[in-house]
């Protein structure tokens, strides 16, 4: 018994930045690597006795689900990511880098909720009420059912909720709200946990759909304790390049829908607009065939998107050739260049290789490997690629082409946008080199990278191309099937 009491009384130490706990004091946190953030945590003693229940337990079949039906947020692309809309009583955490457009998006959601006849409360802790009003004037978000409050105290926020009785609550942001009876500064681990827990508790008990804005750290993860993501029902990431108007919302956690959907938005000075068909943003329609370009079909969640890869190959001016990428994984491009040199005998060790995507889209899916390899080979040989051809497939280190998921869905999207030819991995040895018609497109399956390059006459030795560029009208390139 005495040993048990000794172990129970042993102090524990906790990091004030990330909440990491350890049995002894250390100068540097073992989780977030912060210096001087580990301090002794207050000991919790005693046992919790049985207490009164809020509502009695009932058979699950008798629980009503009518109050938890999802309702539209007024932004179709956000509804797609959420799985149909915002569920009353749900807590949603939206995180993103500064300036990406989180406040603009949520102000639009609040205004759409107000226009639908429901009451919305927008609480801002980062701006004044007049600053938010200026944004609402610019984006057309003025409505009598949209209430606005500028508060940084949790008690004041709870008082506003009791007074307004909203159906939608937006808190921008959870790191700026502080609780007076909790130690620490706003944004600290203890404060964020208490503020988030209190707001989620109010959302559940009063059936209020609640959206919390969260900050991110320099590595892109959500700032604050990890428990913050466990408290909420939905975790969304809002991302986008500063040089591009395109913004994307991805679901990382979703208790009410899928986590493989993505929503696309266009951010401008007039506000944020949903982009229901973003493919045209990532493909440059050339009036003339251009060497070093190839189009692929990648999946963003469940949505197929056509993305163009551009490559430029120049003689190296330094002893070590450069491999520069934008919108593509640099290590994957380096691997593709190595496979081209070793398996297809395209000598690039004395050349600089530059590869980029169009429209600021970032491609991380290996389905674009074949398009990247064709673009590099085309730039190296200075031979044009048909402008209405797509290439889909993953490249292995042996030079083989591997199939990727949902190829029929990708081909259907390319056919819808007017593409007439496709190169894909062969399903079997019998299908290699066989041209078949799919959705009006000429599709050829190839077993490896060398065969794919021969189809377009991009190999080391000249060959009869299966797809070639010819012109049906002056100045208008078209795809020819030999």
UniProtKB/TrEMBL annotation:
<dbReference type="Pfam" id="PF13541">
    <property type="entry name" value="ChlI"/>
</dbReference>
<dbReference type="Pfam" id="PF18073">
    <property type="entry name" value="Zn_ribbon_LapB"/>
</dbReference>
<dbReference type="GO" id="GO:0005524">
    <property type="term" value="F:ATP binding"/>
</dbReference>
<keyword id="KW-0346">Stress response</keyword>
<protein>
    <recommendedName>
        <fullName>DNA repair protein RadA</fullName>
    </recommendedName>
</protein>
<dbReference type="GO" id="GO:0016787">
    <property type="term" value="F:hydrolase activity"/>
</dbReference>
<dbReference type="GO" id="GO:0140664">
    <property type="term" value="F:ATP-dependent DNA damage sensor activity"/>
</dbReference>
<keyword id="KW-0547">Nucleotide-binding</keyword>
<dbReference type="InterPro" id="IPR041166">
    <property type="entry name" value="Rubredoxin_2"/>
</dbReference>
<feature type="binding site">
    <location>
        <begin position="96"/>
        <end position="103"/>
    </location>
    <ligand>
        <name>ATP</name>
    </ligand>
</feature>
<keyword id="KW-0862">Zinc</keyword>
<dbReference type="GO" id="GO:0003684">
    <property type="term" value="F:damaged DNA binding"/>
</dbReference>
<comment type="function">
    <text>Plays a role in repairing double-strand DNA breaks, probably involving stabilizing or processing branched DNA or blocked replication forks.</text>
</comment>
<keyword id="KW-0378">Hydrolase</keyword>
<dbReference type="InterPro" id="IPR004504">
    <property type="entry name" value="DNA_repair_RadA"/>
</dbReference>
<dbReference type="InterPro" id="IPR003593">
    <property type="entry name" value="AAA+_ATPase"/>
</dbReference>
<keyword id="KW-0227">DNA damage</keyword>
<keyword id="KW-0479">Metal-binding</keyword>
<keyword id="KW-0067">ATP-binding</keyword>
<dbReference type="Pfam" id="PF13481">
    <property type="entry name" value="AAA_25"/>
</dbReference>
<feature type="domain" description="RecA family profile 1">
    <location>
        <begin position="67"/>
        <end position="216"/>
    </location>
</feature>
<comment type="similarity">
    <text>Belongs to the RecA family. RadA subfamily.</text>
</comment>
<keyword id="KW-0863">Zinc-finger</keyword>
<comment type="function">
    <text>DNA-dependent ATPase involved in processing of recombination intermediates, plays a role in repairing DNA breaks. Stimulates the branch migration of RecA-mediated strand transfer reactions, allowing the 3' invading strand to extend heteroduplex DNA faster. Binds ssDNA in the presence of ADP but not other nucleotides, has ATPase activity that is stimulated by ssDNA and various branched DNA structures, but inhibited by SSB. Does not have RecA's homology-searching function.</text>
</comment>
<dbReference type="GO" id="GO:0000725">
    <property type="term" value="P:recombinational repair"/>
</dbReference>
<dbReference type="GO" id="GO:0005829">
    <property type="term" value="C:cytosol"/>
</dbReference>
<feature type="short sequence motif" description="RadA KNRFG motif">
    <location>
        <begin position="253"/>
        <end position="257"/>
    </location>
</feature>
<keyword id="KW-0234">DNA repair</keyword>
<dbReference type="GO" id="GO:0008270">
    <property type="term" value="F:zinc ion binding"/>
</dbReference>
<feature type="region of interest" description="Lon-protease-like">
    <location>
        <begin position="352"/>
        <end position="482"/>
    </location>
</feature>
<keyword id="KW-0238">DNA-binding</keyword>
<dbReference type="InterPro" id="IPR020588">
    <property type="entry name" value="RecA_ATP-bd"/>
</dbReference>
């Amino acid at each position: 018994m005495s040993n048990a009491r000794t172990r129970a009384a042993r102090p524990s130490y906790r990091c004030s930045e990330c909440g990491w706990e350890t049995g002894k004091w250390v100068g540097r946190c073992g989780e977030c690597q912060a210096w001087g953030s580990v301090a002794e945590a207050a000991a919790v003693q005693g046992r919790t006795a049985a207490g009164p229940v809020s509502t009695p337990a009932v058979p699950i079949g008798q629980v009503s689900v009518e109050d938890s039906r999802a309702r539209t947020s007024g932004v179709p692309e956000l509804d797609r990511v959420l799985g149909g809309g915002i569920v009353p009583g749900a807590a949603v955490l939206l995180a993103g880098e500064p300036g990406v457009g989180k406040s603009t998006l949520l102000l639009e959601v609040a205004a759409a909720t107000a226009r639908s006849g429901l009451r919305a409360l927008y609480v801002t802790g980062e701006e004044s009420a007049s600053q938010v009003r200026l944004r609402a004037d610019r984006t057309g978000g003025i409505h009598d059912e949209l209430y606005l409050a500028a508060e940084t105290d949790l008690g004041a926020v709870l008082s506003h909720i009791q007074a307004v009785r909203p159906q939608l609550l937006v808190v921008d942001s959870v790191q700026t709200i502080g609780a007076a009876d909790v130690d620490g500064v706003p944004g600290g681990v203890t404060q964020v946990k208490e503020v988030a827990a209190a707001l989620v508790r109010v959302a559940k008990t009063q059936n209020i759909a609640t959206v919390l804005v969260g900050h991110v750290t320099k590595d892109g993860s959500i700032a604050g304790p990890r428990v913050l993501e466990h408290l909420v029902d939905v975790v969304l990431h809002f991302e986008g390049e500063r040089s591009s108007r395109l913004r994307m919302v991805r679901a990382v956690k979703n208790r009410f829908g899928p986590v493989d959907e993505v929503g696309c938005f266009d951010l401008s000075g007039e506000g944020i607009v949903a982009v229901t068909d973003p493919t045209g943003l990532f493909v440059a329609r050339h009036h003339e065939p251009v060497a070093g370009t190839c189009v692929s079909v990648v999946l963003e969640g469940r949505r197929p998107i056509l993305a163009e890869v551009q490559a430029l190959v120049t003689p190296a001016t330094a002893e070590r050739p450069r491999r520069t990428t934008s919108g593509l994984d640099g290590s994957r491009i380096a691997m593709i260049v190595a496979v081209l040199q070793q398996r297809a005998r395209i000598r690039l060790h004395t050349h600089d290789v530059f590869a980029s995507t169009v429209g600021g889209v970032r491609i991380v899916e290996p389905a674009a490997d074949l398009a990247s390899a064709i673009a590099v080979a085309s730039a190296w040989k200075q031979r044009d690629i048909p402008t209405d051809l797509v290439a889909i497939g993953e490249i292995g280190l042996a030079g083989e082409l591997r199939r990727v998921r949902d190829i029929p869905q990708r081909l259907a999207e390319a056919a819808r946008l007017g593409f007439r030819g496709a190169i894909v991995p062969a399903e079997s040895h019998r299908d290699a080199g066989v041209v078949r018609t799919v959705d009006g497109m000429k599709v050829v399956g190839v077993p490896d990278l060398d065969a794919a390059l021969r189809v377009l006459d991009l190999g080391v030795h000249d060959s009869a191309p299966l797809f070639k560029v010819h012109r049906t009208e002056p100045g208008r390139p078209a795809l020819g099937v030999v």
